[in-house]
Amino acid sequence: MTVIDDRQVFPSVPVRAIRRPAAVKPVAPVRRRPAGPRAHRPYPARPAIAPVQYRGTGVAFSRAPHTRRPVSTAVTIALAGVAALITLWLGLVGHVSGSSAAAPEQMPDQLAVVQVQAGETLQQLAGRVAPDAPAGQVMQRIRDLNKLDSAALDAGQTLIAPIG
Predict the structure, then answer these.
(1) Which fold would CATH assign to domain 110-163?
(2) What phi and psi, each to the nearest 5 degrees, are found at residue 145?
(3) What backbone phi and psi angles, to 5 degrees, belong to 132?
(4) What pLDDT is attached to residue 45?
């Protein structure tokens, strides 16, 4: 067992010298305003009949004469036309870039007679017969070719469908 002599332990924070409080100074008495109408103003009062004159807001601005130049109707129409042309150009660029990014998928031209399998939906049938074409368009084409009123199918039902 080790015993540490506490006389050898030094504090980690330096000890500050204790200051004694300074002598209390006497406080001067509070000076009261003298009574009277002008007691609070260090300068002479303005005449009672003169209006108050404000000499600006303190914001510097040019003292040169400024005249408003109205915008003519022709300039307004020209600016509106330029804005319309920019809008049309941006729409055209967006349409061309949007359609070129995704190649338009063609609807298959060949038709075939297919049989509905058990538990198959119209969307699954469209994906099976034309996997590369958009399923929504193929489903609509199957409904149009077979004059279907609803998307309900029966197992074993034969349908005309585009294939490809």
Answers:
(1) Membrane-bound Lytic Murein Transglycosylase D; Chain A (3.10.350)
(2) -65, -35
(3) -90, -15
(4) 62
